[in-house]
Amino acid sequence: SLNQLRSTCRRWYVLFKDKRFMEENMDKAAAQVISKNDYSVYSVTINLQEIGNNFDPSIEFTGKLDSEHVMISTIFHCNGFLLCTTKDNRLFVWNPCTGQTRWIQPSGSKTWYENDYVLGYESNNKSGYSYKILTSCYEGRDPIVEGNNSKILEIYELKSESWRRLDDVPQNWRIRGSSVSLKGNPYWVAWDFDTNIFLLRFDFKRERFERLSLPFQFFFFFANL
Description:
By secondary structure, the protein is mainly beta. The protein folds into 2 domains: about 1-65, no CATH class; about 75-225, no CATH class. It contains 3 helices and 16 strands. Strands 12, 13, 14, 15 and 16 form a 5-stranded antiparallel β-sheet that branches. The protein is globular and about 55 Å long. The N and C termini lie far apart (about 45 Å). The relative contact order is 0.09.
């Protein structure tokens, strides 16, 4: 938050550009966590400074984050932004620091399963970050009844505010659980039909999936499928 004050004072501007100063003081700051409970989202502060003194870390619920009084069903975090789906299956991107929201128009595709959404970005040195949303879903009616087990993939570009379908993208794997974002790309734990476990990454720049090997295999992963 202090970074916003750089333009008010030349000495502060120089100080906030000092990496050593920033690193030393960032370590002293309390960790900020987003917590979801039912259909509400809360801001949580965790103070880790007392761990070295054999004290448990302190946890404080600093407030309820309210975005236009909607009931939030799922959240996905990327680079400080939250991609949220509501209980009535609407979609929006939310900046919890400023309170700004941006509603996303549905793609118009007739899908059977509820869509899975992830937020990411393509980095460009000249134009900065270009944010995109990836969704995967079954098209048409019940895929079990119709024998259609393939998913369609669609990309939404926030800059152009438009959806488009990704064709010719192999999907010879299955995914269990939610994904996490790292440097603008989402990652999942996945397995193929030969029961090989691996990390699956979607590269938003190339708009393709990539398989990453794990350092070990664990076969009990399939016990409850």
